[in-house]
Specification:
9 strands, alpha/beta, 45% helix, 212 residues
């Protein structure tokens, strides 16, 4: 199957497979069947086989899957060993937490610059990277050619900022603001994280006794 024809639902499951395999690997489990993996993950064996077959299939009939090998192969598919140059906008509490996540775990991205409009943040070090004032953003991008931007600021200034970032060659966004980047710039890749939406959904489900 061509990679461009693989559904986004399959791609979204890959990080979950990776996490489960990492746990199995750390516990010394070397071999697992699709049935056993399905039981651990709350999926079906046929779903797992279908997902893996999108990338060529990794198991052996009568043996199952070699856990370390499958873990490495899914990591390769996710390109987690890559180091796509990434900038982070917003060095507040959320920005610091996100910077730590990017810097301490392989994800395919490498934090190259951090920016904030608060003068008091300039020069502070986060994950070994000095915070620069937002005024230096354009020159930094021209000199370093980052391809991804992580947005950890309110939505107020987002239109002007995202217009500039797209103009400067940013191809993808990890967006923690409420601004709809995808609507304004359908040509770029966007993964939005709406923390409050998730919390409100949990509030509804908790109060109404519903299950997802």
């Amino acid at each position: 199957m061509e990679k461009n024809n693989i559904s986004i639902s399959v791609i979204k499951r890959l990080p979950r497979y990776y996490r489960f395999l990492e746990n199995l690997k750390s516990n010394g489990i070397v071999r697992i069947s699709s049935k056993e993996l399905a039981e651990r993950m709350g999926l079906t064996a046929s779903q797992i086989r279908h997902d893996f077959n999108c990338f060529g299939g990794f198991g052996q009939q009568g043996y199952g899957y070699n856990v370390p090998e499958l873990y490495d192969k899914i990591g390769d598919i996710l390109c987690i060993n890559g180091e796509l140059k990434t900038i982070l906008i917003g060095a507040g509490n959320l920005g610091k937490a996100v910077a730590s996540k990017i810097s301490t775990r392989k994800s395919g991205f490498k934090l190259a610059g951090i920016f904030d409009k608060n003068e008091a943040m300039s020069g502070k070090i986060i994950e070994g990277i000095p915070v620069r004032h937002i005024d230096y953003l354009e020159n930094f991008c021209r000199d370093n050619s980052p391809v991804c931007a992580v947005i950890c600021i309110p939505s107020n200034d987002m239109k002007e900022l995202t217009d500039l970032l797209c103009k400067l060659g940013i191809k993808s966004f990890w967006n923690f603001s409420n601004y709809d980047i995808a609507m304004a710039h359908p040509e770029v890749l966007v993964r939005s994280v709406h923390l409050t939406d998730s919390l409100m959904t949990l509030s509804y489900l908790t109060n109404n006794g519903n299950e997802e």
